[in-house]
Design goal:
Elements lengths: L7 E9 L14 E6 L2 E7 L8 E4 L4 E4 L1 E6 L1 H6 L4 E2 L6 H9 L9 E6 L10 H8 L4 E5 L4 E4 L1 H7 L8 E3 L1 H11 L3 H16 L3 E6 L5 H10 L6 E6 L4 H6 L7 E2 L2 E12 L29 H13 L3 E6 L2 H14 L3 E5 L2 E2 L4 H7 L2 E4 L1 H6 L1 H7 L6 E2 L2 H6 L4 E3 L10 H10 L16 H7 L19 E4 L8 H5 L3 E6 L2 E5 L1
C-alpha cells in the first residue's frame, strides 16, 4: 500500500464522478487513471493497460477533482483549536459562564470564539462579563469575527477605555484579532500544518488565505520548513498594498519560487456583517430605524485602492455582504477594469445579480452561512428587498461561483458547503429557500480551483489534484454528503491523505 508522500503512477479501478465523466463511454465503467509529472496522462478501462509506478487501488470508489476552500483565515482557524467554543451559548450570561471555566492560555488570556449574540435575548454588558471572569483578560470573538466582547482586564491590556458593553466592532475588533493571532510562529505554523493535514482528509488540495497579515512572509517561512500539504493563494490587505506593489508582487506569482503558494488578490473589507448588524443595506435593521449598517471603506477610497492594485497586476477580492456594499463593489469593478471576486455576496439587489457575469466577477460565497443564518436572515433582513444568499440566481445568469467556508466562521469542510448549496438545510430541517439551491455538479465545480464555470476536470493533461470518495457525490443524500469519507487525496499526484 502506498504511503503518504508517495508519487502515484496509477489509480486503478475507480469510477469517475467529477467533471470530465461526460466524455467517457460509460459513466458506470471502472477505469484506471495514469499519472505522470503531476498531471493526468491517460484514462483507460480497468485492466486495459498495465499499471505503472506506485499504485493506489481505488476498489471501485469515486474519483473527483481535488477540492478548494476559496475563503479561509488560516491562522485564526488553526488557533480556534486552542480557544473555548461558544457556538452553543444561548445567552450573554451563558457565554460569560462558559468563559469563567475556560482555560487560561500561556499568554495569560482566556479566549473564546464563535458566539452569536444576534440570537440572544439578553444584552452583553461589561459588568456581566467582569462578574464571571474577574481579573483574567478574557476575549469572546463573534462567530462572524466582526465584533469582540472583552472584560475590563482585557480592555485595559489592549489600551481601550471601559464602556457599558465591552463590545468592539469592525476595525477595532479586527485589530484585537490581529493581536490575538500574532502567536509565536513555531506554535502557529505547527497548528497551521495540522489544519492542512485535517483538510486533506476531506479531499482538500488548496485554499485561499485571507489572514490579516503580511502573508507572503508567513507562507515563505512555512514552505521553507517543509509545508507541502496544500496549494495556497493569499490575500493582501490595503495596509500592505504599497509594500506588495514595491516588491512587484502580481497575482499568480509563485512565492519565492515555490509552486505551492502563490500571490492572490487585494482584499478590501467594505462593510460589516449580518450578525453584527453592520452589513450595509438599503433598508434599516428592525427596531433601529437609523441603522442601515455601514460602509467601512468609502466608495472613492475603494476606487483608488482597486485602481492601484489593477495597475500593479493584482486581482481584487472585495468583501461585500449587504446589497448596498455589493452595488458599490460592482460599480468599482466596472469603473476600474479590475478583475477578481466579491467575497460573500450575501444580500444582492435583483438588478445587480446579472452584473457579476457581465463584468466577469466571481461570486466567492459560503453556502453553509445560509444554513447558519437562515433564522437571522428571516428576521433581521425581513424588510430587505435584495435576494439573500442567491446561489441559483447567480448561477443562472452565468456568474462563476467559488465556494468557501470563511473558517473559522464555519468549519473548513467543502462537503458541508456542497451539502448546504444543494440541499439548503441541515439537521433535518425543512429546506430554506430551496429555489436558490444549485445542482450537485455545479456545487462540486464551485468547490474546485476554477469555480463553477471553469472547474477542475478529470481528463488527460489536467493537474493530478484528486480525491477518492467512498460514495458517489452525484447521488449522495444531504447527510451522506456531510459525512462523505475521503479515502485518498493527491496533490500533483502525491498522496497527502490515505485512509
Amino acid at each position: 500500500m502506498s504511503g503518504i508522500g508517495a508519487q502515484i503512477g496509477t489509480i486503478t479501478r475507480t469510477r469517475i464522478a467529477g467533471a470530465g465523466r461526460e466524455f467517457l463511454p460509460d459513466g458506470d465503467t471502472v477505469y484506471d487513471v495514469f499519472l505522470d509529472g503531476g498531471v493526468i496522462a491517460d484514462i483507460a478501462p480497468a485492466g486495459a493497460i498495465r499499471p505503472r509506478g506506485e499504485v493506489v487501488d481505488a476498489d471501485g470508489t469515486w474519483l473527483i477533482p481535488g477540492l478548494w476552500d476559496h475563503h479561509v483565515h488560516v491562522v485564526q482557524w488553526a488557533l480556534s483549536a486552542q480557544r473555548m467554543p461558544l457556538g452553543e451559548a444561548t445567552s450573554a450570561a451563558h457565554a460569560a459562564r462558559i468563559m469563567a471555566d475556560a482555560p487560561v492560555l500561556p499568554d495569560g488570556r482566556r479566549i473564546g470564539t464563535g458566539f452569536r449574540d444576534a440570537f440572544w435575548s439578553d444584552i452583553p454588558t461589561l459588568d456581566l462579563l467582569d462578574a464571571a471572569t474577574g481579573d483574567i483578560p478574557t476575549y469572546l470573538i463573534n462567530a462572524d469575527v466582526h465584533s469582540v466582547w472583552l472584560n475590563t482586564a482585557a480592555l485595559r491590556r489592549e489600551g481601550h477605555e471601559r464602556d457599558a458593553s465591552g463590545l468592539l466592532r469592525e476595525e477595532p475588533a479586527f485589530e484585537i484579532s490581529r493581536r490575538l493571532n500574532a502567536v509565536d510562529p513555531v506554535i502557529g505554523d505547527a497548528l497551521v500544518a495540522k489544519t492542512a493535514q485535517d483538510a486533506a482528509t476531506r479531499g482538500v488540495v488548496g485554499l485561499v488565505d485571507f489572514d490579516m497579515a503580511w502573508n507572503e512572509e508567513s507562507w515563505a517561512r512555512r514552505l521553507a520548513s517543509g509545508f507541502d500539504a496544500l496549494r495556497v493563494e493569499f490575500g493582501i490587505y490595503p495596509e500592505y498594498l504599497p509594500r506588495a506593489l514595491a516588491a512587484g508582487l502580481r497575482t499568480g506569482d509563485p512565492v519565492r519560487g515555490s509552486e505551492l503558494a502563490r500571490v492572490g488578490s487585494l482584499k478590501v473589507i467594505t462593510d460589516g456583517s449580518l450578525g453584527t448588524r453592520t452589513a450595509a443595506c438599503s433598508h434599516a435593521y428592525p427596531d433601529d430605524p437609523a441603522n442601515r449598517g455601514m460602509l467601512t471603506v468609502a466608495p472613492e477610497r475603494l476606487l483608488a485602492l482597486m485602481t492601484d492594485a489593477t495597475a500593479g497586476g493584482l486581482a481584487c477580492a472585495i468583501h461585500a455582504i449587504g446589497d448596498v456594499a455589493n452595488s458599490h463593489a460592482l460599480d468599482a469593478f466596472a469603473a476600474t477594469g479590475a478583475w477578481g471576486t466579491i467575497e460573500h455576496a450575501q444580500l444582492v439587489a435583483h438588478v445587480d445579480i446579472p452584473r457579476f457575469a457581465r463584468l466577469g466577477i466571481g461570486a466567492s460565497v459560503q453556502p453553509e452561512h445560509a444554513v447558519d443564518d437562515r433564522d437571522l436572515t428571516d428576521t433581521v433582513w425581513a424588510e430587505q428587498t435584495g435576494l439573500p444568499y442567491p446561489l441559483r440566481a447567480l448561477a443562472d445568469t452565468g456568474a462563476n461561483l467559488l465556494f468557501g467556508s470563511d473558517a473559522p466562521v464555519s468549519p473548513l469542510d467543502p462537503w458541508a458547503a456542497i451539502a448546504a448549496a444543494v440541499f439548503r438545510t441541515r439537521d433535518g430541517r425543512e429546506a430554506w429557500q430551496p429555489e436558490q439551491g444549485v445542482d450537485v455538479a455545479t456545487a462540486l465545480a464551485a468547490s474546485t480551483y476554477g469555480g463553477s464555470t471553469a472547474g477542475a476536470r478529470i481528463e488527460p493533461g489536467a493537474l493530478a489534484d484528486l480525491a477518492l470518495c467512498d460514495r458517489d457525490p452525484l447521488t449522495a443524500t444531504e447527510p451522506e454528503m456531510r459525512d462523505m469519507a475521503v479515502v485518498a487525496t493527491l496533490l500533483g499526484g502525491r498522496l497527502t491523505h490515505r485512509a
